[in-house]
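Quick question about two entries, pasted in order.
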Amino acid sequence: MDTGTYGYPKQGVKKIDPSYDVPEGVDIRGRYDEEFAKILTKDALKFVAELQREFRSHIRYALECRKEAKRRYNEGALPGFNPATRYIREGEWVCAPVPPAVADRKVEITGPVERKMVINALNSGAKVFMENLMRGQVNLKDAVAGTITFNDKARNKVYKLNDQTAKLFVRPRGWHLPEAHIFIDGEPATGCLVDFGLYFYHNHAPFRQTQGAGFGPFFYLPKMEHSREAKIWNNVFERAEKMAGIERGSIRATVLIETLHAVFQMNEILHELRDHSVGLNSDRWDYIFSYVKTFQAHPDRLLPDRVLVGMTQHFMKSYSDLLIRTCHRRGVHAMGGMAAQIPIRDDPAANEAALELVRKDKLREVKAGHDGTWAAHPGLIPACVEVFNNNMGNAPNQIKDAKRDDAASITEEDLLQIPRGVRTMDGLRLNTRVGIQYVAAWLTGSGSVPLYNLMEDAATAEISRVQNWQWIKYGVELDGDGLGVRVSKELFSRVVEEEMARIESEVGKDKFKKGMYKEACKIFKRQCPAPTLDDFLTLDAYNYIVIQHPKGPAKL
């Protein structure tokens, strides 16, 4: 989950003492309760401000480079390997050894930082729990300390941690997302520096004792497009280690290879982070989104229905195989992707069918050489663990055993091959229905939402949005039941109306009325036929949830 909000509560806001002390140049604008004072301390905010001031010019430059790359691709250029860094790709170097505490990462679970969900995820039997944070920062602090509990009065049940729990990996936001509730020197702070800075400041010492065995904290780094961005993260880590007085290389991170640009930079990214890396992850859904967005001006590279774009498509298999070879050659983990299925409690036959799909996907990953995988729900953990244990035995990973030298021949053409398949009216409808429902959930604070027996997140909603945009822009002719029909703004508008009626029927009138489906529909209906494709859906949606207090004597 990439959070674009601190999740300030909408009710029960307490007036804060105007004398609350914050560092010079820092303004906090937003609703929160007294618990946040545990996190928004003067020293923690000072550390965040120091990171912002030291690295903001580098971040701005990296984001400008992204714009320049986008301009080139929109003018017809294709991504590819950089000839200037060939020496890095062909060099014989390795990353720092993987810390013993995270040598075994066979199954990782991802989820929100809501209090009960954190406890359930850490207790799930997975090796790693990965996620992001304001209310979440409080929960993560208590989780690292081992004191997190949750009293579910409705069920008369108290949730607490088991003796053995998953290792905690925290995912900050991407470089592109601002934190509109924290201003530093008159401008919004960079979201990921806020996420990282607050979490690291409060948790580096207890984490190293309770989870890292002398290493840590551990992170997942999302939305990276170039090794220059990895270099910024490496410098941030070194700055944090120096502040904390801990050894260089203590902080460790896994980079999500979820953009088409990054697949051509995997060696370079690992090289920049070689003292702090524990691997790369093949985040397939964001990667598909990036493929469409990168080729938004290429009508010859339109994707088929999103349900047809799986890991057996040549460009996806090539991406996964090259990631495995790259990681193992450099001595770090090659993590597999998300099992998006969720348990179907009221239909045993459908539930078993869903679990079988998970088993097949995980078997493909472990046979290919992945060291571990992701699951979206605790109910999938046993099936994932079984597959990896049956094929890996007692080995913690496959770094030394699955070198994948056969993947050395993968070319730019393999990574860019146009996917095959049909484009249908059902695909257009599913995109619309899933996109609107996800945005509605996001606007109410949920970064992931179960829909049609799958866990949908921002990435799958983004695929829905950008694919609709591309089909409308180029007037795609549909196959199947819509044979001969071309996608247009008028057709899309009619589909939106019909799918909104279906959503209301499926969720019920009361939930539909209380939810933010109409607001979500406005956002989705505006973005899909827009003349210019917005880079991220959540940047637009973020404006709907930002609540700021006016500046004045009280900074908090």
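Here is the second entry:
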Amino acid sequence: MAFNDLLKQVGGVGRFQLIQVTLVVLPLILMASHNTLQNFTAAIPPHHCRPPAHANLSEDGALEAWLPRDGQGRPESCLRFTSPHSGTEANSTEDTEPCTDGWIYDNSTFPSTIVSEWNLVCSHRALRQLAQSLFMVGVLLGAMVFGSLADRLGRRKVLILNYLQTAVSGTCAAYAPNFPVYCAFRLISGMSLASISLNCMTLNVEWMPIHTRAYVGTLIGYVYSLGQFLLAGLAYAVPHWRHLQLLVSAPFFAFFIYSWFFIESARWYSSSGRLDLTLKALQRVAQINGKQEEGAKLSMEVLRTSLQKELTMGKSQASAMELLRCPTLRRLFLCLSMLWFATSFAYYGLVMDLQNFGVSIYLIQVIFGAVDLPAKFVCFLIINSLGRRPAQMASLLLAGICILVNGVIPQDQTIVRTSLAVLGKGCLAASFNCIFLYTSELYPTVIRQTGLGMGSMMARVGSIVSPLVSMTAELYPTIPLFIYGAVPVVASAATALLPETLGQPLPDTVQDLKGRRRGKRRQQQQEQQKQMVPLRTSAQKNGL
């Protein structure tokens, strides 16, 4: 509790916390836009083959003479006749060939997307999913690299680098001359965005007193949901993919500039053994919060006494291998990995296929954002009253059940299926909200960012595997839903193996975790002994 007492001494939740939390959280609005940006920049417009260059449409009987029809009477997207047909011949698929002269796109809804610009359709349609998968690979790499780097260099330095990286790579993607260059810059953007998400949570949590951490986690979740609303509005107002890509990337230059004014986590300084910088950071915060007198009372001697544990145990930074080498950390890592993977796997299985809902893509984006508001509020109430563990288990379990039930609902029940999908998505959004806070509270300071990074890495594995599972729909249409639903249901059981963190101080070292477990066992033994005393007394009386 020593560091928590120091935070209260320099103002608790004061002017500094309000300003820094706001500035750190603000970029997350556009981070949400980047994560699902390809729903709009890679939307597939209606299209059909371009007739041969030698075709004379006025003599051949218009464009339709070159286009075979599918079972519903619509022009085939990937085939054309080798010679003009008319009448009932238009329904035949004989004498057809691929679209060797390219395609004609319906630009009424999407004037320009990467699909229409680089012809990512028909035999090249897998490249569209490749672009999103490479973005998620970047997120995975960013979680691995920058998570560990933030534990060694600090949260502030890594955030500054990530803002600049996102601004430059996102802007370059908007001006990409070809598809490979676009994918490369999207991958680099994914790396930095993963780190921004992790460091935002960590830097804010480490500057806040115990009783306010759930509020910070919920605020971050709501800001992310606000970003989904913003994306729908921006995509509707700016339908050209290059302009939209630039619009959600350029503001990161502003975030890069003001991030130089962030104050590094004093808790990280102390866990790194840098007591002089810890003192400077705390005194600066005290000055901003109007607690100059309290800040003046702090000194190197006071910090040595208050933070003796951090100085003696936290000088050496733990590596990622400690997550597997140390039994206490290994248990946390394996359980949390299951939760991260399941949440992301099911979440992106739902949100990255908006065009298949049969309604306006802009409308479904707004609905998916709107459901987050009540879902995260209910999750916040459970987190604050019952604890993190019940909230995590309930959100994953309910999400899985909604998706599984959706798999047995007939395809023509559009409203019911959409409602269940929206409810499941809301539960998964609440699960994301909880898992960020829960993970940051479970891992000790010396390895917190590395642990968050590894958790995010497992989430990205889930988001990469998710599109592959959707391909099983070719075998049977509802197979993906059964898989998307079963995984979170199974993973929810892992929360039973995790400790509760409601009202607990943040652990700084692995010894803190072991002490917490020993304390829990001691408390259970004391309760058992108390229960045994009346039984012994009753037995003695009966014996007498």
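Reply: The two ends are 49 Å apart (CA to CA). The mean pLDDT is 80. Hope that helps.
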